[in-house]
Specification:
two-stranded antiparallel ribbon; 2 domains; 3-stranded antiparallel β-sheet; 5 helices; disordered N terminus; Arc Repressor Mutant, subunit A; 7 strands
C-alpha cells in the first residue's frame, strides 16, 4: 500500500523480520513485567548513545504491535484518524471496487465531503463503517450457526 494522505507505510521486507521480532519480544516482556508503569516510559538507545528517549506508554504499545506485524513479514501503515482518503484509497482499504464504494457513499452508508468535484472520506469514518459492517456480518454468521444447530445439521 502506498502512502495515504499524511500516513507512513513500511512495506514487507523493509525491516529485518528477525530484528523486528527481537525488539517486539523485548518490548512485550517489559510491558508485561511492568503493568503499572506510569504513562511515560524511558527508553535507552542501543549503540553507546547515553541519551534517553521518553515515550508515552500507548505509543510504546503501538510500536510493539507494529514490530509484531513486521516480524511476521507484514507491512504496516500508520494513518492519522483525520486523514482524508480518495475513493480509490478507501475502496482499496475495504477491499472493494471503487464503484461499489461510491454506491456506499451515495446511499449515505459512509459520510464524505467534496473537494471540488472529488469525494473525500475521513479515515475515521471509513473505520467506523468497517466496524459496523463487521458487526453486522458477525451477527448474521451467529444467526446462521444458531439456525444450523436448531435444524441439527
Amino acid at each position: 500500500m502506498a502512502m495515504i494522505a499524511a500516513g507512513r507505510t513500511v512495506r514487507p521486507g523493509e525491516v529485518d523480520a528477525e530484528s523486528a521480532a527481537r525488539a517486539h519480544r523485548r518490548i512485550k516482556d517489559f510491558l508485561q513485567a511492568h503493568p503499572d508503569t506510569p504513562a511515560d516510559i524511558t527508553m535507552l538507545m542501543e549503540g553507546g548513545d547515553k541519551d534517553a528517549l521518553v515515550v508515552p506508554r500507548p505509543v510504546v504499545e503501538l510500536i510493539a504491535h507494529m514490530l509484531g506485524q513486521l516480524a511476521e513479514g507484514r507491512g504496516v501503515s500508520i494513518i492519522p484518524s483525520f486523514a482524508e482518503l480518495t475513493t480509490q484509497q478507501a475502496a482499496d482499504m475495504l477491499n472493494v471496487s471503487r464503484p461499489y464504494l461510491i454506491k456506499l457513499l451515495e446511499d449515505e452508508k459512509i459520510p464524505f465531503h467534496l473537494v471540488g468535484r472529488n469525494r473525500r472520506i475521513t479515515f475515521q469514518d471509513l473505520i467506523e463503517y468497517k466496524r459496523r459492517d463487521d458487526a453486522k456480518r458477525r451477527a448474521a454468521a451467529d444467526e446462521l450457526a444458531d439456525l444450523t444447530q436448531e435444524l441439527g445439521l
